[in-house]
UniProtKB/TrEMBL annotation:
Gene Ontology molecular function, alphabetical: methylmalonyl-CoA epimerase activity
Domain VOC intervals: 3-131
Entries under SUPFAM superfamilies matching the protein: Glyoxalase/Bleomycin resistance protein/Dihydroxybiphenyl dioxygenase
Record's protein name: Methylmalonyl-CoA epimerase
Source organism per UniProt: Pedobacter montanisoli
Keyword terms, alphabetized: Isomerase, Metal-binding
Entries under CDD domains matching the protein: MMCE
EC primary class: isomerase
Length: 133
């Protein structure tokens, strides 16, 4: 794992949250995107070398909606940049981690992604991200 790629924050209302984070971070949202396969709308912010991703559910029973119902709005996951997602997934499987995806899938911001089950990571959902080439 190279670095933290972004921190994902679950929000109820993306439009309101974009305005809030633009004020908070004093920077505009640089990209919004819908990831239909995950039933989420996303918004991205750069804060120095760091990225923040806001996630809002597009479905009342989507993963983000369920997360918010259970835990409220807030940090949903921490994503790490990797050079080779397939190799990193294999390494983690061999170390005994449970992956939520058998194969990487297309995520937001031109990334291949895979999630590591939070039961293995002290309750933190970890996302692996590799730039699609």
């Amino acid at each position: 794992m190279n670095k933290i790629e972004h921190i994902g924050i679950a929000v109820r209302n993306l439009g309101e949250s974009i305005k809030l984070y633009e004020k908070l971070l004093n920077t505009p949202c640089y990209k919004t995107e819908t990831v239909a396969s995950e039933h989420v709308d996303t918004a991205f912010f750069l804060n120095g070398p760091n990225k923040i991703e806001l996630l809002a559910s597009t479905e009342p029973d989507g993963v983000i909606a369920k997360f918010i119902d259970k835990k409220g709005e807030g940090i949903h996951h921490i994503a790490f940049d990797v050079d080779d997602i397939h190799a990193e997934m294999e390494r983690l499987r061999n170390e005994g981690f449970i992956l939520l995806n058998e194969q990487p899938k297309k995520g937001a911001d031109n990334k291949l992604i895979c999630f590591v089950h939070p039961k293995n990571t002290n309750g933190v959902l970890i996302e692996l991200c590799q730039e699609m080439r």
